[in-house]
UniProtKB/TrEMBL annotation:
It holds the Pfam family S_100. This is Protein S100-B. It comes from Dissostichus eleginoides (Patagonian toothfish). SMART domains: EFh (SM00054), S_100 (SM01394). Residues 35-77 form the S100/CaBP-9k-type calcium binding subdomain domain. InterPro entries: EF-hand-dom_pair (IPR011992), EF_hand_dom (IPR002048), S100/CaBP7/8-like_CS (IPR001751), S100_Ca-bd_sub (IPR013787). The keyword Metal-binding applies. Residues 84-112 form the EF-hand domain. GO terms for biological process: positive regulation of canonical NF-kappaB signal transduction; positive regulation of cell population proliferation. GO terms for molecular function: calcium ion binding; calcium-dependent protein binding; RAGE receptor binding; S100 protein binding. The keyword Nucleotidyltransferase does not apply.
Length: 127
């Protein structure tokens, strides 16, 4: 079942808010929900940077830095120097290969998203 899903995912083609799923049952076009669009955006952003150098499926430190700089500029203001970037990479790099793979990246995105959620939740409490 999981293998089948992976195959379906591998043949996803994006076309402005819709995607085409090719499986044994043939092609079908599906309109994406907001959450599905967000998920595919995260994947696309990761790939945009991970493909630049070396391993195409992993972010090396310079790719991570470019991603943070361009895509999370507010957060990047807290990563001021090389030491801060080194320690962030060390925190994210769960398997210790000195690169950030998609799973490690997702852990990071989840963390940041949960922090944002907590922040907005507390904002409402003050009203
Ligand atoms: Ca790379
Ligand atoms: Ca790693």
């Amino acid at each position: 079942m999981e293998e089948e899903m992976r195959h379906e995912m591998a043949t996803l083609q994006l076309h402005d808010g819709t995607f085409e799923v090719t499986s044994e049952k043939g092609k079908r076009r599906v309109r994406m929900t907001n959450l599905e669009t967000s998920m595919s955006t995260i994947i696309a952003v990761f790939q945009k940077y991970s493909e630049r150098e070396g391993d195409k499926h992993k972010l090396k430190k310079s790719e991570l830095k470019e991603l943070l700089h361009d895509e999370l500029p507010d957060l990047m203001t807290h990563v001021k120097d090389q030491a801060a970037l080194d320690s962030l990479m060390e925190t994210l790099d769960a398997d210790g290969d000195s690169e950030c793979d998609f799973q490690e990246f997702m852990t990071f995105i989840s963390m940041v998203t949960v922090c944002c959620h907590d922040y907005f939740e507390h904002e409402h409490e003050d009203e």
